[in-house]
Specification:
heterotrimer; A mainly alpha (about 270); B alpha/beta (about 260); C mainly alpha (about 260); A: about 270 residues; mainly alpha; MetI-like fold; 2 domains; 10 helices; C: about 260 residues; about 0% strand; globular; binds adenosine-5'-diphosphate; binds magnesium ion
Chain lengths: ~270, ~260, ~260
């Protein structure tokens, strides 16, 4: 079958070489990162496989869960929920001024705006559990420190998400109000709030779902909730108690996810 | 010489949809056949039975005298390698570069261990690049497929089919997603390749002006039945009205005969 | 009398929320006075951290590098293990329904399991150190990566698959040339996104002994050496910020 004129091997090489060079460059960088990382953590497939049985035997010791222990878990479970609720609630309130300051269409002052955004981004880099560990050391053991940690985290996360929604609102309703002579407060109340309220509520609930998960492990750094008996059980090698706690935690997280979904339907 | 024969071919889809009803026809090597019919008439089904993307419910299909309805998996793959297919939506891997899309046409000719390592023999790379030159986009070889215009993408589709060095090309509404000038350019490409390489070509179209302009032979389908089969010169508006079962409207015409200079390049 | 149902619903909602808040405050023995005392003490802690202890700069930095390394290797292990599961748990690509269902449930279960607890288990079985952190992250991230990747697989364009099947390619070739190039950039993007989260997790895992900068934080918090805490936090903030931006940039480039 005729194939038109044959393309020179030179041309073939040119077309296929560009690709190879790019790939080679990326490969060298990636290889460097991996060698550096693997050496840093002492990565060894052999060791991972060798120790795997002891990991599984540890899991095996957790079976069956100590069902009787579940009765003692009600109080810490309730505390876990309360920590998450209060942390999310205070966060959702404290977030309001921060959101307004970190939205460039509300805060016209560049310095205040960048300060608020910067503060938000700095606080966001630190995980909740580090806040909890720091507060436990600074204020003391207990659920109060856990709640404050969650409050800090919720404030910045909700503010980040909501301020982005706020910056994207449409100006039609605002201009309409301006046209009929509304003042700034009226404009916020009737043109801005209705536009971002659904987003704000939705983000708050989303953060609440994260917070429930976090508050189940706060106890591992001494900040209250169901993690406290978990920490104790693990320290005392009571693995069947630990597995009971983990099981209960699972159920709690799933139940809250479900409830939060329902709540979303009602509120949003 | 007959390359393709249909003998009482019927296709029934699940849900008892009769998409083809006892279609019989014979196509000679090197013919350029246009299949027309309303949407839902069974054009795609007819085309897809040729490479058995759709299995005929009954009847016999012969390619080069050989009944293909009974081929086993391995034979089927070998047969499909000889048949290029061009699609309405091009069916390219958008994020892959053009050459890679065209090389896909060589997959069934290269040993699997080589394709798995991406080590195509020089000969196959040459075939891929010259296929691109045949459709006048050789310089786009290293561009990502989704950075091309619709007409250029369809030419990549044609190049992929050409890279198979096929005996038959099947084109299912190849210009339905293109604008009028580009449609003409792509039809001209198909026609030119058909003539130069003597590749038997079957094209589904629902635009009657394109069918008349580029078809040598026209086959009409209505509700899965073959209702017309004759040279394009014998076809007039009356015949189309019979195939379509209604009067012809502007929607049945692609319009425009000028090839846009941009697309000519 | 006409009842304004919308207003009524709003009032009920508010009352319920308020009730729950009061119940929580009662239960945790929190009152406004405690809060009023708590907020300034946060300010006080921050003040104690300044100036950060410069003597700990290099030790904190190298511990942070270890956290990065833990996150890199952990995320990679998870991405490799999640790869086959991404296809097994994707509906609409020809995997039997029961397999898809089972795989999705397993992914959900893994996702719900807190990585800190996994970290404790791995520290108990592998001994303290970065390898335990690697394993905790490597196992835990499978859940999210598998879920996101299977969603990507479910949305691929079937066109190229059809084209290659029509030209007689075998299953392996269809996978490598029609499916793989479509999903790879997005798989990489989800892995990078997870890497950003894992870097934060890797800073925390040290609190249970699983290596990284958390170990330094744990020790300095135990002895209330606030300037050291400040130094470590400063390094976390700077490094996490740089990596977040770099990762987000790469993600944007490749998708
Ligand atoms: N996979 C399928 N399953 C069920 N029915 C189908 C399928 N594909 C096509 N059909 C039906 O078969 C008939 C012919 O379809 P098709 O061959 O696609 O027609 P055309 O390409 O001419 O528009 C139509 O009624 C269509 O709805
Ligand atoms: Mg069709």
């Amino acid at each position: 079958m005729p194939q038109g004129k044959k393309v020179k091997a030179q041309k073939v090489a040119r077309v296929f070489w560009v690709d190879r060079l790019k790939k080679l460059g990326a490969l060298v960088i990636i290889a460097f990162i991996y060698i550096w990382s693997a050496r840093g953590v002492g990565f060894s497939l052999l060791e991972i496989i060798r120790e795997l049985p002891s990991f599984f035997s540890l899991l095996g010791e957790m079976i069956p869960p100590n069902w009787a222990y579940s009765r003692r878990l009600i109080a810490p479970l309730v505390e876990t929920i309360q920590i998450a609720i209060l942390g999310s609630f205070f966060g959702a309130i404290l977030t309001i001024p921060l959101t307004l300051l970190a939205a460039n269409n509300v805060t016209r002052n560049k310095y205040i705006y960048f300060f608020a955004k910067g503060l938000m981004n700095i606080f966001r880099t630190i995980p909740e559990l580090l806040y909890a560990a720091i507060l436990v050391a600074g204020i003391g053991l207990g659920a109060f420190s856990g709640m404050l940690a969650i409050t800090i985290f919720s404030t910045v996360v909700i503010a980040k998400l909501t301020s982005e929604s706020l910056e994207a609102i449409s100006y039609g309703p605002l201009e309409a109000l301006q046209a009929v002579g509304g003042n700034k407060l009226q404009m916020i109340r009737y043109a801005v709030v209705p536009q971002i309220l659904p987003a704000y509520t939705s983000y708050s609930l989303y953060v609440f779902e994260i917070n429930i998960r976090v508050s189940t492990v706060l106890g591992l750094v001494g900040a209250g909730g169901i993690g406290v008996p978990l920490q104790t059980s693990l320290n005392l090698f009571r693995y069947q108690n630990a597995s009971m706690i983990i099981l209960v935690t699972f159920i709690l997280v799933m139940a809250i996810d479900y409830a939060s979904t329902k709540l979303r339907e009602v509120l949003v | 010489m007959e390359i393709l024969e249909f003998e009482n071919v019927s296709v029934v889809y699940p849900g008892n949809v009769e998409a083809l009803k006892k279609v019989s026809l014979t196509i000679k090597e090197g013919e350029f056949v246009v299949i027309v019919g309303l949407s839902g008439a069974g054009k795609s089904t007819l085309l897809r039975t040729v490479n058995r993307l759709v299995e005929p419910t009954e009847g016999i299909i012969r390619i080069g005298g050989r009944d293909i309805t009974k081929l086993n998996k391995k034979e089927l793959k070998k047969m499909r390698a000889q048949i290029g297919m061009i699609f309405q939506n091009f069916n390219l891997v958008n994020r892959s570069r053009v050459v890679r899309n065209v090389l896909a046409g060589r997959l069934s000719y290269v040993p699997t261990w080589r394709t798995m390592l991406g080590m195509f023999p020089l000969k196959d790379k040459e075939i891929a690049l010259s296929a691109l030159e045949r459709v006048r986009i050789g310089e786009k070889a290293n561009v990502r497929a989704d950075h091309l215009s619709g007409g250029q993408q369809q030419r990549v589709g044609i190049a992929r089919a050409l890279a198979q060095q096929p005996q038959i090309i099947l084109a299912d509404e190849p210009v339905a997603s293109l604008d009028p000038p580009t449609s003409h350019a792509v039809m001209k490409d198909l026609r030119r390749i058909n003539k130069e390489d003597n590749i038997t070509t079957l094209v589904n179209l629902h635009f009657i002006d394109l069918a008349q302009e580029y078809g040598e032979r026209i086959i009409g389908l209505r509700d899965g039945e073959l209702v017309f089969d004759g040279p394009a010169s014998e076809v007039d508006e009356g015949v189309f009205e019979e195939i379509y079962g209604r009067s012809i409207t502007d929607d049945d015409l692609r319009g425009g005969t000028q090839v846009a200079p941009r697309e000519e390049g | 009398m006409k009842i304004n149902w919308q207003l009524f619903r709003r009032i009920v909602n508010l009352a319920v929320i308020l009730g729950v808040i009061i119940w929580s405050m009662e239960g945790m023995n929190i009152n406004l006075e405690r809060i009023a005392r708590g907020i300034p003490s946060i300010g006080n802690i921050i003040k104690l951290m300044f100036p950060p202890d410069m003597d700990f700069f290099s030790r904190s930095l190298s511990a942070m590098m270890e956290s990065i390394q833990i996150a890199v290797i952990g995320t990679t292990i998870a991405a490799i293990l999640a790869f086959p599961i991404s296809f097994l748990s994707a509906a609409k690509i020809g995997v039997p329904f029961s397999v898809v269902f089972l795989a999705k449930q397993i992914l959900n279960a893994i996702r719900t399991f807190p990585e800190l607890i996994l970290g404790i288990f791995f520290v108990a079985s592998y001994g303290p150190g970065p390898l335990a952190g690697v394993m905790a992250i490597g196992i835990n991230s499978i859940g999210m990566l598998g879920k996101l990747n299977s969603e990507i697989v479910e949305t691929i364009d079937r066109g190229p698959i059809e084209a290659l099947e029509a030209s007689g390619s075998n299953r392996a070739e269809v996978f490598l040339y029609a499916i793989f190039p479509q999903v790879l950039p997005q798989f990489l993007a989800t892995a990078l996104y997870r890497f950003e989260l894992n870097l934060r997790a890797a800073t925390v895992l040290g609190l249970v002994g699983a290596g990284g900068i958390g170990v330094i934080l744990l020790q300095s918090l135990q002895f209330r050496r606030w300037p050291v805490v400040g130094m470590s936090l400063l390094i976390i903030i700077v490094v996490v910020t740089i990596i977040d931006y770099t990762s987000a940039y790469i993600r944007k480039r490749i998708t």
